[in-house]
């Protein structure tokens, strides 16, 4: 696929992602959900993600960015994730059990995109790099925890032990991502936001053990991210060339 088609497809799927909640709705939790599901307001992160993806697509449409290593690296996996988002909402409305593998596929695509974003030389302005990395980080960070929470909603009255396993999976996935993505601020913030939501819900439900697990996972993810940022490879400082003696006249 050439660059022009790739840029157009990224923009089209970003619009599809933005419009799909109008057709299928966007679940923001309910009173019947397991206690690890964050309260409704925490799902507002989806608004940031959708708007960010639209902004990335619009910026990437410019011919001047066609050759940008950053935009070219993330274009295909982000397009796949945006298609997955629409399929996920469709599955939630018609075949809820399919939301789990669809969400897992989205997370895989986002992991590829974010890993590329934090390792590839952007070859573009700092504003573009910040936009892409922050958007992908928030998308992947929330999804890293949400895929486990989504699994909990598909189980019939899951026990506290099962919920503990799923919550631990969310915490470990966010922590592993913080390491893999070099302490990405967007990823860590969104992943921590999801774990904080689980903490709020479990405290409100009086599920002390699950609350401790959510709080511990939140702290672990932040600590791993801080350590990962400290271990980031520093850019080499260019050395000055040899001084040339002035020519004699």
Report on this structure:
By secondary structure, the chain is mostly helical. About 2% of the residues have low confidence. α1 runs parallel beside α3, α2 packs across α5 and α3 packs antiparallel against α4. The chain is globular. The termini are far apart. Helices cover 71% and strands 0% of the residues. The protein has one domain. It has eight helices and no strands.
**Helix- and strand-based class?**
mainly alpha
Largest sheet: none
Classify the helix fraction into a percent range.
over 70%
Form type: globular
Radius of gyration: 21 Å
Order of helices and strands: HHHHHHHH
Our measurement of the CA-to-CA distance between the termini, rounded to an integer number of angstroms, reads 60 Å
Unreliable stretches (pLDDT < 50, length at least 5) are: 236-241
Number of strands: 0
Work out the helix count: 8
């Amino acid at each position: 696929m050439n660059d022009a088609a790739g840029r157009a497809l990224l923009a089209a799927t970003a619009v599809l992602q933005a419009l799909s909640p109008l057709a299928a709705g966007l679940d923001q939790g309910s009173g019947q959900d397991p206690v690890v599901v964050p309260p409704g307001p925490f799902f507002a992160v989806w608004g940031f993600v959708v708007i960010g993806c639209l902004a990335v697509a619009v910026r990437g449409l410019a011919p001047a960015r066609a050759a940008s290593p950053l935009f070219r690296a993330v274009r295909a996996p982000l397009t796949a994730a945006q298609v997955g988002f629409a399929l996920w909402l469709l599955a939630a409305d018609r075949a809820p059990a399919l939301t789990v593998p669809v969400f897992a596929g989205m997370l895989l695509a986002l992991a590829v995109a974010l890993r590329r974003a934090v390792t590839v030389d952007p070859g573009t302005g700092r504003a573009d790099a910040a936009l892409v990395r922050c958007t992908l980080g928030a998308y992947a960070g929330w999804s890293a925890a949400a895929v486990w929470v989504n699994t909990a909603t598909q189980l019939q009255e899951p026990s506290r032990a099962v919920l503990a396993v799923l919550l631990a999976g969310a915490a470990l996935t966010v922590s592993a991502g913080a390491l893999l993505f070099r302490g990405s601020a967007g990823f860590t913030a969104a992943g921590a936001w999801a774990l904080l939501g689980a903490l709020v819900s479990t405290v409100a439900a009086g599920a002390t053990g699950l609350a401790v697990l959510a709080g511990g996972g939140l702290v672990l993810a932040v600590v791993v991210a801080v350590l990962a940022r400290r271990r980031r490879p520093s850019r080499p400082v260019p050395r000055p060339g040899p001084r040339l003696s002035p020519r004699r006249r």
